[in-house]
Amino acid sequence: MKCFISQRKTIIIVAAIAISTLMSSCSHKNNTKAGPDTLAVEVINLGKDHNQGTQQTDYDGTLQADKAIDLSFQVSGTVTSFPVKAGDYVNKGQLVAQVDETTYRNQYNAQLAQAKLAEENYRRMDEVYRKGSIAEIKMLEARSNFEQATSAAKATYQNIVHTRLYAPQSGYIGDKKIEAGGVANPGQPIAQLLETGSIQALVAVPESEVNRFPKGTPAVIKVDALAGRVFNGVVSEVGVLAVNGTANYNVKVKLTNADHVLKPGMLSKVNFLSSKKSVDTADSAGVLVPVQAVQVDEQGNRFVYLAGADNKAARKMVKTGRLYSNGIAITEGLKGDERLITSGYQKLSDQTPVTILNK
Hints:
Number of helices: 3
CATH superfamily of the domain at 57-66 and 197-277: Efflux pump adaptor protein, beta barrel domain
Strand content: 35-45%
Number of strands: 20
Radius of gyration: 43 Å
Strand order of the largest sheet: 2-9-12-11-10-13
CATH architecture of the domain at 57-66 and 197-277: Beta Barrel
Largest sheet: 6 strands, antiparallel, barrel
Structural class: alpha+beta
CATH class of the domain at 57-66 and 197-277: Mainly Beta
CATH topology of the domain at 57-66 and 197-277: Elongation Factor Tu (Ef-tu), domain 3
Oligomer: single chain
Shape: rod-shaped
């Protein structure tokens, strides 16, 4: 019996030693620090994928005609004909509207009769003068009366001409302000003619950015009403007065409209393409990077992570400049040909192995 107990104790001791050895082995394994994990990241090639030659900014724009001409009569009268409608395309020299010419026709006929009478009187006086029967002054007075009557008749005839309103150039009728039967007054606009061979996109730009887009700056205009069709344009005018007391200034972008598919009033997205050299700032030579790729350490220093040739993340200290709509300018620390890590950088540290997902 004692021998059995002794053997049992021996078995228990051996088992305890084995368990202790196993636990020690597991503990040793757990305390052994493995090498750094490889993290998956995405990068952009600053010299290729990222456009460093331009800063791009999107704005809402409204299309308007390059020229908007108010059509009006030079004489007053009742409108007897107005054959065009809003939206109609008219050619240069086409009749747009007409007022009643009766009064002007009667005035012309009366003055024409006076001119003919003055002409007959002048001829008689001239004939008598040649015979030496009257003084020269009488003949000169008769000639003067004839010339005045003729000029008055011609002037009145112009009133008849002005009773017909013709399109001064080709374009669309944008708006009609009167209909046939209404009374038109001299200089009162009766319609608007829109010249749409070229179109302008009107954009309100904040005062802090308006100087970035001088006259001649190229732009891309996207029109949703035309299934997102894209047009190229150039800044033709930069406003010098704020719009309605706001801090915005109007910038006009001119684009061709040879097929006349662009209509005034269409909404658009205007993407300015401004060369960095045209930006009047000290950081104009900087490298533009996504804002989210720039991080800040405990001391307030800014840094980014780059993917090295050995597929390890390299922490790079940088200095930042102006903030743009599509990134921030790096004025020191980058050359512009690096591979910048833009995704997965949150868990990185210097020299962490990385796997690039978007090779």
